[in-house]
Each structure stands twice: as structure tokens, then as C-alpha cells.
Amino acid sequence: MPEAAVSPALNEDEAALATPIVKCLVRLIRAQESYGSWEGKSDATLADFIVTGEQRRAIPIIGDPDPDVLWRLDMFYTAVGLTIEERSGLMTPPMIEMKPMGASDDCFSRPGGCSLCRDIHRFGFETFRKLAEAGTKLVDDATASH
User: Fold this and answer.
1) pTM: predicted TM-score of the whole model, two decimal places
2) What are the helix (H) ranges across the chain?
3) What's the pLDDT score for residue 86?
4) Is 109 helix (H, G, I), strand (E, B) or coil?
5) What spatial distance separates the first Cα and last Cα of the chain, rounded to whole Å?
6) Which domains does the chain have, with CATH numbers?
């Protein structure tokens, strides 16, 4: 029986899920999950972090970021910090504190804050590969010797 062809996107997803940053993100989410909803599920359940261009355009710019978006933002940057710590041995907790109520007003008080809020509303990545690349770049930049 001939082997079925594996799509390049599937191989790309598997490679991304094997990166240290994504493995750390999965561990973090599984550690915080207390209802058993992740039990028996694959790591590809990180689909909440995938936001396609079409989904991104459907998200309104005006209003407070959705609590789920703030959770994804927190989980991603906490995983980046933990991966930096694993690589360098230095503790690097994220310095982000966003609240659903009033977050938009706070963003407009700084230059460039307008695009920051727009990006927060749409936080996510097109693919697992882009998620892994973004996290890996942050970790590489933070641990590079200067």
C-alpha cells in the first residue's frame, strides 16, 4: 500500500509545534488548564493563536480587547520569557499588564499607541510556523550576545 502524500502545510505545522517556544507555550497552557478540556487533545489545539487575515479583518478596531485576546497575549509572552529563562538561565517575566476595561484609553496616551491597540485586538498568527518564528525571534534577540 503506497504511503499517502503529506501536505507541506502539515509538515510545517509539525515542525513549528516541535520548536522550544511552542512546546513551552503548550506546557504553560496545559499547566494552567484545570477542567480537563485539553486532556487527550493534540498540541495543535493551539488553534486559538491562529488568526487568519480574514478573521483579522472581521475583528472591530474600536472597543476593549476581548479577554481571550488578552489571555493569548499573556500566554505568548510568558512562554517567551520562560523559553529565554530555559536558554539563558536568567529569569525574564513579561512586563505586560493589560486590562479589558480602559485598555484602549491607556494606549492612546502614548505616541504610536493607536497601532498598538489595533494589534492587540487582532493578536494572533496566520500559521503555526509564524507563531513559532515570532516567538523564536524574540527569544533569539533576547539571548544574543552583544
Assistant:
1) 0.74
2) 8-17, 20-32, 53-58, 67-88, 103-107, 113-121, 128-143
3) 92
4) coil
5) 54
6) 8-37+61-143 (1.10.3100.20)
